[in-house]
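Weekly modeling sync, notes
Attendees: S.R. (lead), two postdocs, one rotation student

Agenda item 3: backlog of single-chain predictions. S.R. asked that every request posted to the team notebook include the full sequence so nobody has to chase files. The rotation student volunteered to paste the first one in as an example of the format we agreed on. Action items at the bottom.

Example entry:
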Amino acid sequence: MITDISLYEVLTVTTLLFFIGVYGFITRKNLISMLISVELILNASVLNFVFFNQYLYPEMLQGAIFSIFIIAVAAAETALAVAIIINLYRKISSVEVADVENMKY
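Predicted structure, as returned to the notebook:
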């Protein structure tokens, strides 16, 4: 049950998820791994919504409803990003950020 987990444990896990996602986004050179890092950041925010809602207002479901909207937006964002990455791969045969930056000129 969610009530068995303390808020500090949840904050620790979501903070780690968030900063792993930020670190992955900053350090990776592959577009797909950068997309996975963005998904980690969004998942950390979803967990925060659910657990803070359960901690502050256990009888209400706003945190879960916001989480469903975030998951839907993340799914749409992922589908769009994968479509863009596939088109870039068809054009330049690479998914590296440096190769995409060379397409600007």
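Discussion: group reviewed the output briefly. The chain is about 80% helix and 0% strand.
Action items: rotation student to repeat for the remaining queue; S.R. to check formatting next week.
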